[in-house]
Amino acid sequence: MRKQIIAGNWKMHTDLAEATILVEGIKAALTEGEVSREVVVCPPFTGLSTVADLIEDTEVRLGAQNMYFEPKGAFTGEVSPLMLTDVGCHYVILGHSERREYFGETDALINQKIKAAFQYDLIPILCVGESLAQREANETQTFINSQLTAGLADLTAEQVSQMVIAYEPIWAIGTGKTATAEQAGEVCTAIRAKVAELFDKETAEVLRIQYGGSVKGSNAQEILSQLDIDGALVGGASLKADDFMAIIKA
Ligand code: PEP
């Protein structure tokens, strides 16, 4: 059985006061009932240390939104995997479409980052997903397969079985447009099949696949009930404790 994982990507939002209020709200709500899903919060770098302290005695796990692949050195403005583990991160989001689009991240760079994440004991959440033009041209799966082939190159089956892949159609991120549960489920099934082809069936069965793209309390249950969807990567709706909790408890 794969444990579902709900991760909040706070993007470039929250100062320390806002981050504290948000985490306290999540913590309070989590004490109110049994939660079977794993909960991860991914604040901006500046909030990691504060949030790490706040979640210390809880089951909530900490993730970063990006990192560089070198452990240290003259790389002005970058943050290393060692720095992330030092501050208490367990996960790191890699290859988010905003990183690919605005910062020119390539599959090859993302692959280097994934390998570095494993080297320094971080679990990568690899984001893949097609643009609207690619979906309309029926290129969704071909494109995602190429992202998977390049992004997972040179990894071991053991590593891949531990990681998380987030299927995030670019046209659904922050737009209020959500893929239908069937559309999302179909692509996640195809991602699992591709991983089985690249590695093996056992690895593909263990790997967790999230859907991301305008997930909210009102659509979470339908999305999360799809066979091959093992959780959600949540942007906008992770910025308010009530909205995030509605997804966690959906
Ligand atoms: C994201 O940024 O990963 C995301 C899914 O954002 P949103 O939920 O706001 O669409």
Summarize the entry for a quick read.
With 250 residues, the protein is an alpha/beta fold. It is built from twelve helices and eight strands. The radius of gyration is 17 Å and the shape is globular.
Summarize the SSE layout with pairings.
Elements: E1 5-9, H1 16-30, E2 38-42, H2 48-54, E3 61-64, H3 81-86, E4 91-94, H4 97-103, H5 107-119, E5 123-128, H6 132-136, H7 140-151, H8 157-162, E6 164-167, H9 181-198, H10 201-206, E7 208-212, H11 217-224, E8 231-234, H12 241-248
Parallel strand pairs: 1-2, 1-8, 2-3, 3-4, 4-5, 5-6, 6-7, 7-8
Helix pairs in contact: 1-12, 7-9, 9-11, 11-12
Bound molecules: phosphoenolpyruvate.
Residues 9, 168, 173-174, 212-215, 233-237 line the site of phosphoenolpyruvate.
Task: Count up the domains.
Answer: 1
* Main CATH class: Alpha Beta
Could you name the ranges where pLDDT drops below 50 across 5 or more consecutive residues? none
Percent of residues in β-strands:
5-15%
Protein described:
- It is a single chain.
- With 250 residues, the chain is an alpha/beta fold.
- It has a single domain, classed as TIM Barrel, CATH 3.20.20.70.
- Helix content is 44%, strand content 15%.
- It contains twelve helices and eight strands.
- The protein has helices at 16-30, 48-54, 81-86, 97-103, 107-119, 132-136, 140-151, 157-162, 181-198, 201-206, 217-224, 241-248; strands at 5-9, 38-42, 61-64, 91-94, 123-128, 164-167, 208-212, 231-234.
- It has an eight-stranded parallel barrel with strand order 1-2-3-4-5-6-7-8, surrounded by six helices.
- Strand 2 (38-42), helix 2 and strand 3 (61-64) form a beta-alpha-beta unit.
- The longest helix has 18 residues, at 181-198.
- The radius of gyration is 17 Å and the shape is globular.
- It starts with a strand and ends with a helix.
- The mean pLDDT is 97.
- Bound molecules: phosphoenolpyruvate.
- Phosphoenolpyruvate (PEP) binds at residues 9, 168, 173-174, 212-215, 233-237.
